[in-house]
Description:
The structure is a single chain. By secondary structure, the chain is of the alpha+beta class. 53% of the residues lie in helices and 15% in strands. It contains 12 helices and 12 strands. The protein has helices spanning 24-72, 80-90, 126-137, 165-217, 234-284, 293-314, 318-321, 334-345, 369-388, 424-427, 446-456, 481-491, and strands spanning 94-99, 102-108, 117-120, 144-149, 157-163, 330-333, 354-359, 364-367, 399-407, 410-417, 460-463, 471-477. Strands 2-1-5-4-3 form a 5-stranded mixed sheet. A 5-stranded mixed sheet has the order 7-9-10-12-11. Helix 1 runs antiparallel to helix 4 (165-217) and helix 9 packs antiparallel against helix 11. It is rod-shaped and about 160 Å long. The chain starts with 23 loop residues before the first helix and ends with a helix.
Amino acid sequence: MFRQDSDPTPEPRPAPRRRARLGLSGKLLILTIVFVTLAELAIFVPSMANFRLSWLSDRIAAARTAALVLEAAPESTVPPELARQILDSVGAQLVVVKREDTRRLLAMSDMPPAIDQHFDMRNTPFWRAVFDAFETLLAGRNRMLRVVAEAPRDGDFLEIVLNERPLHQAMLKFAATIFLISFLISAVAGLLIYLSLNTLFVRPMRRLTERMAAFREDPEDASRIIVPSGRNDEVGIAEDALAELQRGLSQTLAQKTHLAALGLAVSKINHDLRNLLASVQLISDRLADVPDPTVQRVAPKLLAALDRAITYCEQTLSYGRAQEPLPERRDVDVAALIEEVRDTLGLQLDSPVRWIASLERPLTMDADPDQLFRVLLNLTRNAKEALEGRAPNDPARDQIRISARRRGSVVEIEVSDTGPGIPAARREQLFSAFRASARRGGTGLGLPIADELVRAHGGDIRLVDGTIGATFLISIPDRPAELRQRPLRARA
């Protein structure tokens, strides 16, 4: 019976999907309205100030003309009715000209008005004109305004007093007109800006977002990968990058799914295969009692091969599911190990593929013999299969060369062949699982396993450029002396 865990690990909850309360379109619309309104206000404010100045300038111009007429007439010869008509045409209630410290009253209404505000047009800063314009626009009563300007015929100044109500009414009409025009302009401009930005930026960004969300729901569905629109701007670059990322992720997930299915199948096969190999091992043990010399010579190698096969079955799923076991390092006779690799490959002196070994003798290295055997067997088997692919083979042309030497505390083993070599397109992923195999039917695990085993020894394996065929250089350093003594103490 299987025991059920009392505290199962809770499954991670998917992150909640965030929903934007205000999308890019809404934000763009609000920003367009705000900035267009600010731009219109920037136009409206000086327009009102200029309108007030223009209106007062017209009254001053009319007052100058009236002053010239009144000054030309002899004193007390202008009838009061005519003076009143002149003031009405100017729109003022009082006209005064000052010359040489003398103020002359040219015309006046029946009662002298009380002045509420003074305004000097000879020296008015812009900010003051803006302030006065809005003060007039917001005024709620009839105020009397005294306006001072340049006098005609070299006078010191011209002074008029007028009622501000006509100016207030004129500014209200002008404000309503300019507001209507500004509203129409801002509406049309804002609409055009919104439609342009929405078409150029918001829609492509929304499309990117929707495709990313759709791809997140099912990354293994290739139909959810975005199709780039072919734009030449930053949006197009983002689409190309997203499409490449989604394709790579989709392929990786498909490989992971395939690997999981493969692992399940291999685990089932491994169980039965391990039992069969154990039975074969029991039968092969009887060969040791056979007195035949050939059997006595072959039996130890057969038993060693079966032991390795059983060990490999027990570690079949170690790649990808867990790390390879740590190497059990000891002194290894490199020449004997290389000879064992040659026998495992079945390469004899008369084989169509020639085996050439060049070693320093005696040469020992600090390594795990079983793991080093797997590394060399994977490399030489790949070389043999590459050479056999161009049959018929010629021993003078098709050769596997293996050499070993010591450089200080590092042992270098070089495995090369005279085959077609490795295509440049496969070199970038040479040590990636399921991608390095150039042979049809290959698993693409030989080189990744070899790389993992060598790195577990603290060494390095690399492809040597500029050689005939393919050449791999393995470099494995010795352990420090104190680390090598610990296993001895443990055994003692």
